[in-house]
Design a protein that fits this description.
Helix content: 25-40%
Largest sheet: 11 strands, mixed
Oligomer: single chain
Structural class: alpha/beta
Order of helices and strands: HHHEEHEHEHEEHEHHEHHHHEHHEEH
CATH class: Alpha Beta
Strand content: 5-15%
Bound molecules: glutamine
Number of domains: 1
Number of strands: 11
Shape: globular
Radius of gyration: 21 Å
CATH architecture: Alpha-Beta Complex
CATH superfamily: Amidase signature (AS) domain
Amino acid sequence: MNELIDLTATQAAERIRAGDVDAAELFEAYRERAAADELNAFTWVAPESPTNGLPANAPLRGVPVAVKDLFCTEGVPSQAGSKILEGYRPPYTATVIAKLSDAGAPLLAKTNQDEFAMGSSNENSAFGPVLNPWDRTRVPGGSSGGSAAAVAAGLAPWAIGTDTGGSIRQPAALCGIVGLKPTYGACSRYGMIAFASSLDQAGPFTRDVTDAALLFRHMVGRDRRDSTSLDYPGEIELPRAEDLKGLRLGVPEDLTGAAGGIEPGVRENFEATIKLAEGLGASIEPCRLPHAPQALSAYYLIAPAEASANLARFDGVRYGLRVDGDKDLIRMYSRTREVGFGAEVKRRIMLGTYALSSGYYDAYYGTAQKVRTKIAEDFRSAFDRFDFIVTPTSPCVAFELGAKLDDPLAMYLNDFLAVPMSLAGIAAISIPSGLSDGLPVGFQLAGPAFSENRLLDAAHALERAIGFDGSRVRV
Ligand code: GLN
């Protein structure tokens, strides 16, 4: 394998700045690999190197980045994995992508994803499923499956995805890489094609924790075009910690008990990782998050409710697909939506519309919002006693393509351990913690809002102790 590909993104950035590596050469090495992709990880690959116009001395100068399809990028197809947006090339660029480009990171590719980020396996993409590089008969997780598979397989040095209810952490876990779901509001949502606006967050997919910190550093910040974005308190530091001395980790039995349906191999790995954490000086104790088991139920009302409103704009008038309505406007709308949306998206629109309809609003949407508040309170009181909450990221390793397609509830259960943190708006990271039957397992650490520096530090110390080697799938 090309030794350029062996460099982490942080190492590549350093070498380019030192003049040891040529930015155009690095871009071309990845561009060729991405163009030859057999995993269906991409929906678009840059036709040529844009490295000539890169800002001199920019911190990420020349380190290419792959970006989930749903980030609007000017002039480049941005389709959110949907047929209804096929061929849509936005006239503007998402803030997060513009920031990375200002920091010197050129756009390498757009990555495949579940349609409008709805899914946990990437099988809901209008552009076909993505294959897991560890076993091509298996899913990479979702909805940011293309980003996860691309980074794991070394088709991109790093990538960006979004997490609404697990879509960064779960595919990162299933592909054996690092995925960070930032605090809600840390990154601007401007230019991200919306799924559920009160939950959607952009975040990094990387080979290691240091890369995650570096990429995240250049994504954060308040944006006047997203009123829910916030000034990040302080700088994002590169992690240095080598131990976990003095840290109190809570294991929430409400999630890790029988209700979670955690596979034996995943459980074994989780327990071994807990032991490692103890060896590094952390104290581990059980903790309670009594409302967290209701998170999925609340999520599957709130997220579809917001989606049904956000997706109302796709009507054949403004973007992408239009199916002729024989001069009848309403018929044009409905035919366009009939043909343009996939089955899962339609299911969510119906669920959400129902939950918001008059007479049911209080019973469904209102109740779900109350549960959401309870879950946030659970975390708040847990963080009085604990620095971080830890769980496996996903109850299972990567499953066979097609295995859960006919059973939406089984598919939704993949996010049992990830959704509570999304509803609470807090920070959480997944790091690879080993293999079960030859497939990667992820370990999740969740911390309070804006605890990313501490979280990255702890994840870094643990990553060193775990010593996971994902290089074998970067062939
Ligand atoms: N799998 C969850 C869903 O289908 C979460 C998706 C996400 O985080 N975008 O909604």
